[in-house]
Amino acid sequence: QGKLRTVGGDAAGFDLIADLKTGAIYVLDITQQAYAEIGFPRDKSDTASGESPQDLVIEVEDTGPKVLGYSTRRYRIYEDSNLIREITTTDELNMEFDFMRAMEGLEEAFQEFSPAENFGELSLLYRQVRGVPLIDIQYYPNGLDVLRATKVERTKLKPGEFLPPKNYAKKEMRNLSENGTGADPAEKPSTAP
């Protein structure tokens, strides 16, 4: 269906809904029972070079560890020889859209609120990652952020599952960070499948 939703909130209490067909992204603030809507950036793949920048390197391990019974491929992204991200994906789940291109679009949308210096360079690398991510580890100087799929199930969802709850108030994105946690919702909500 080209739709994505996280459930249970990330560490800051935010969930995410993305509809790739309509171009809508909703950031849900569970604590405030509020949401913000931002636009999904239009596909710019026709203007992007397929070459990786020299200070960023991607290594591909064609046979990664089995995860939840699925065969995987592991991608490691290095910046200046330092491992910054490790993504383990599978091609065995039949999705109706390119999951990593969707993730790239979400990260691009968040650049307006929390810009990353090397986003353009990283996006070129993300385009080389294929499949549905089952493990996504981001390495930071002060720790790491791990997203891990714990279950894969097929279930019928109602269209309303991909809209903000009716009792949630609409707010500007910058106002969602005022929930008392001090967290910034633009710091990439969890997007585990």
Task: Describe the protein's architecture and organization.
By secondary structure, the chain is mainly β. It is built from 3 helices and 10 strands. The strands form 2 sheets. A 5-stranded mixed beta sheet has the order 1-2-3-4-10, with no helix packed on it. It is globular, with a radius of gyration of 17 Å. The two termini are 14 Å apart.
Name its key features:
10 strands, 193 residues, mainly beta, 5-stranded mixed beta sheet
Structural topology:
Layout: E1 3-5, E2 14-19, E3 24-29, E4 34-39, E5 56-67, E6 70-79, E7 82-90, H1 99-110, H2 119-126, E8 132-140, E9 143-148, E10 169-170, H3 173-176
Parallel strand pairs: 4-10
Antiparallel strand pairs: 1-2, 2-3, 3-4, 5-6, 6-7, 7-8, 8-9
In short:
This protein has three helices and ten strands, in the order βββββββααβββα. By secondary structure, it is mainly beta.
Count of helix runs: 3
The radius of gyration computed from the alpha-carbon positions, rounded to a whole number of angstroms, is: 17 Å
Order of helices and strands: EEEEEEEHHEEEH
- The overall pLDDT, averaged over residues, is 76
Strand content: 35-45%
Q: Any idea what the shape is? A: globular
